[in-house]
Amino acid sequence: MKALTKLGKFSLTGALLLLISGCASLPSMPKVADLLPTQDIHVEVPDRPATMALQRTGKDIVLLVPDYIDTRANKKSRRVGGISTTVVNMYGDEFFLDQEITTLLSAAVRKQLTNSGFKVVTQATSAYDFELIGAIGNFSLNIADRDKLNIAVETTVMDGKTGKVLWSGIISEISDRFAGVSGNTRSSIEEYLGNGVAEFSVKTSASIKENLAGSYPLTMKVGQSKTVSSVPGVTTLQAVVDLESKPELAVADSPIASTQVGVGHFSVTTFPARAKVYVNDVYYGMSPLKLAFDPSIYALRFELEGYKAVTEKVSVRRGETTELEIKFAK
After folding, report:
1. Is 155 exposed, middle or buried (0-12, 13-18, 19+ CB in 10 A)?
2. What is the DSSP letter of 304?
3. Domain 255-330 has CATH 2.60.40.1120
4. How far is 156 from 288, CA to CA, in rounded Å?
5. Residue 128 carries which DSSP code?
6. How far apart, in whole angstroms, are the C-alpha atoms of residue 303 and residue 311?
7. Taking a C-beta distance cutoff of 8 angstroms, is the pair 300, 323 a contact?
8. For residue range 183-198, what is the model confidence (pLDDT) as tens digits?
9. Greater confidence, 320 or 52?
């Protein structure tokens, strides 16, 4: 009887050992989070109808459009917004793009500008007529009982030769919607955001055309007409009108002579944007800003309400552009 009992114990122990060794050879179980759908969405920006090209003295306009910069407070570069209602095939309380927000907006604007007849370049490696700088102040889509979209970008247009700020303003695309009784899905959110970005791009293109035509009314033409309708959702911060009839405006706040032979440039971007820029204690405008000077060393000061002032020295070299990025601290 004792022998049988001992045999039973050995059999049970062996079975347990076999079970443990068998489990060890099995692949590890996936985590629950790995089985859930990703929170990254992919946005395709639809094409919008092309508009009549803006030309200057019969030639296409070359527009430099570097990548937009993100100036949102407490930003996560790919975060879109929050989710406070049920969405099919998504989980959690926030969602993200599968690319940088700056990449999405920059590409969409360049695409629309090209469709509108501009020749768009992304780097200052060749001659260009004007430069567009975009600072993203808001980019959000919050999913709730009513979905709310808010895109706002401070946009600045500068003369490519003089660095003169021709126009700056806030371009916004704000909308809301009720997703319907069936609610939201991943694809419906992607479509809604894509349409919003497309509308923002159309407003950006229309604003640039309108304000360039206003700055150079004698040589700028939109198709066969000089009339451009005002753009809804755009708030002008600064504008220069009719430089051709009043050429003194082109150098009113800039030391740049009519010829650019022998000068150098410096381009400054600040985070946040709209900082006051002083060169040798003389105020030249608000960032982002591009200026031309004779080759030398210049003392710069940047001031923005609520932040500590920043001072820098910059060497301007003949025929070159010195780029400067300033980040303010509280």
Report:
1. buried
2. -
3. yes
4. 7
5. -
6. 9
7. no
8. 899 999 999 999 999 9
9. 320
Q: Where are the domains of the chain?
A: 34-252, 255-330
- Distance between CA atoms of 166 and 163, rounded to whole angstroms? 9
Query: What is the amino acid identity at position 314?
Result: V
Confidence of residue 211 (pLDDT cuts 50, 70, 90): confident
Q: Sorting pLDDT into bands at 50, 70 and 90, what band is 6?
A: very low
Distance (Å, rounded) from C-alpha 92 to C-alpha 61?
Answer: 46
| Alpha-carbon span 154 to 71, nearest angstrom | 10
Does the global pTM surpass 0.85?
Answer: no
- Which of 39-48, 159-168, 255-264 has the least mean pLDDT? 255-264
Q: Look at the domain 34-252 and name its fold.
A: Rossmann fold (3.40.50)
Contact 266, 323 (CB under 8 A): yes
pLDDT averaged over every residue in the chain: 77
246-253's contacts with Cβ under 8 Å and 24+ in sequence apart are 250/159, 250/162, 250/164, 251/162, 251/164, 253/283, 253/284, 253/285
| Tokens encoding 173 | 């695309």
